[in-house]
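User: Sequence in, structure out. Go.
Assistant: Echoing your sequence, followed by the structure tokens.
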Amino acid sequence: MKNVFKFWILLITFPVFSQQDSGLLAVISDTNQFVLLRSGAGKENPVIDTLHEGYMFSVYGDTSKPWLDVHTPVGIAGSVHRSQVRYFDQLDYGNQKALLLDCFHSTRIFYKDYWTRVEAAESLQKRQKLYKDANNIYEAKFIPAYTALAKLISVQPDSTLLIEFYKSLPYVSGSADEGKEWACAQIWLCQTTYVESLLCNLVVSLRITVINSIKTGMAMSGFEEKFSKDDLQNKYNRLDNPCGN
């Protein structure tokens, strides 16, 4: 009863997080390694941002139009010609995996000594630049990557991808973004036994971080449509001792 009470208290006390319609994840297909995001359909419209190779963005609306409606992860909306876009779901698995690995790895490397660099910054201008860079890499790489990962792992488990994602969690644990915890929980719920076997091979400190992320994600709404209350509770109980020791 104690665990049941604890689980449903979490459901009440944590903010509600739901996966809203995020459009179709896409990447650029331009050979110049970047494309220009315009304020409207047509080259006559001014350039408002640049989409770089290795970054994902969202496409909304009618995908058969010559010019597509695009939202960047940092909230900038504009238009890109359809010929310059490749959809994540249409990439072969090798390219999907390489893209996600790069996103998780670059996020972890950037944040590894982030606060040390902030404290060592000699001016407010340099600190502001670091803050901006951190926000950009988190929102433009990490958020789309874990969103895509949660969907991908649900149907095709991959230990290399999961471990790289888990390794990034300690470095971004201070973020108020709850989506990464939601992704951790979704992956756990869909691949419980598989994830459990991975957890037991992680160093203890990382295992604790991942389990805490899963528990936080389990406390959010959105899973009741796919899993019964008893199933959710049983899976949650397993987190207290996933390795049986």
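User: And one key feature?
Assistant: The chain has nine helices and seven strands.
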